Amino acid sequence: MSALAAGARLGPYEIVSAIGAGGMGEVYKARDTRLDRIVAIKVLPPEWANDPTSKERFDREAKTIASLKHPHICVLHDVGRLRAEGASAGQGEEVDFLVMEYLEGETLTDRLARGPLPLQEALGVAIAIGDALDKAHRQGVIHRDLKPSNVMLTAAGPKLLDFGLAKSQAALPAATSVTLPGMILGTMQYMAPEQLDGVEADRRTDIFSFGVLVHEMVTGKKAFEGKSQVLLISAIATASPPPLSLVQPETPAALDDLVKTCLEKDPADRWQDARDVVAELRWIAEGGADSDLGGSAGKAGRATRAWLRRAAQIAGAAAVIVLLWPAYLYVQGPPAPEEVRFRVPRNLTAQPDETQGGNSGSGGAATFSRSDSAISPDGRMIVFAARPTPGDTVVLYARPVDAVAPQRLAGTDDASRPFWSPDSLSIGFVSKGKLKKVLAAGGRPQDLCDAPGFAGGTWNREGTILFGSASGVFKVSEEGGTPVEITAIDQTESGHLWPRFL
What we know:
The chain starts with 8 loop residues before the first strand and ends in a 17-residue tail after the last strand. Strand 9 (151-154) and strand 10 form a beta hairpin. It has helices spanning 46-49, 52-67, 108-112, 119-138, 193-196, 203-219, 229-238, 244-247, 253-262, 274-285, 295-331; strands at 9-10, 13-22, 25-32, 37-44, 76-83, 94-101, 105-107, 141-142, 151-154, 157-160, 167-168, 373-375, 381-386, 395-400, 407-408, 415-420, 426-431, 434-439, 446-450, 457-459, 464-467, 474-477, 484-485. The strands form six sheets. A six-stranded antiparallel sheet has the order 1-2-3-4-6-5. The relative contact order is 0.06. By secondary structure, it is α+β, with helices and mostly antiparallel strands. The longest helix has 37 residues, at 295-331.
């Protein structure tokens, strides 16, 4: 197959340029002409599509990614088989493809080419990827090819890529198996010893590869090396890499111990669950590793002290409640609700007497309305639309309710009618007829769908967004897509506006 040329089309997707090629196909940057957004398209070459094993792996990758919804796992938008049209290269050929979110950033491989990551940055990446692995494992999915080139570092955080070699632990008929006993899959330098022996991989196999990854992030050196394939296999099977603290002296003893346990040769001696690994990494990142007790004895001592301290606190609190609760109820009336006050400016250069909101203004100042502000579900943040200076384009600002200075959210020009995600981390808004979302902490907004006549949005914990309009209420996923009409107006109604999840 010839590579797809710029301008070639697969249905609504127009090829922009080639990104690269891997073991399971070619990847292109493309434009989704329906939603006017940039996506990444992974194409299975036709010669591989005729190979049942390669085709099944490709199909399995699509099903695997679709089943994993996690902020640090690459999002799958679409899958299909279409004829390439509109350009000479590859024109007329049937193409199997996956459509995924387009990620801007660099691979962990490229970042490590400049040296090791600072300790806190390495811990942050490790926690994100470990949490993504935990999500996959709990869905019964083993990655089997965890390595730096399959981790993308983006402004929104690390992303785990390429589930082309992933396998499901769900029972499959023998006829559907795509691996054979003794078959080696993956990149050898990051393989667990049992993979080299052709033994069936499980979650502990990924944990070994994860340990290799963390070792390389902290030290800037590969955990296992050999001048030949035989020597590399021997090193993985028998050798132990030097402690992290030998290369990076500031490394906490607890992190040394964590990586050492990940890299045990016998799977039974490793961490058995990625969630436990992530919990330990978070404890280290929060400064818990400052204790002078390291290793397993230190962990046992910390756990014992924490349990005793919590038991004493619970017992003391229970005693106080039993003794004082009746008296408290007698002398106390209904508790006064907590009062929160804040000002929302129409523009950020307004004088104090102009910052009260309302529908009147002077000197051409922007009019402010309640529909252009929203308080987060946890009550800690407010988002509002305002002009940086009179005459400027309206943009969104986010601010803790107890702070003074707001943070401008880049890429939100002409934004209005903001609303919050249920976890208070993201903000939906409409701009130039499109529904978009952006992290409250800042970042690049993401287009979700066209939303002409948008009249209020609401967002639930299942990742569904509803928005009102003059013709009815529409539903769309928080990851974007084509909105679906779920209500329609009758002759007596002028619209279904401002929907709210209860």
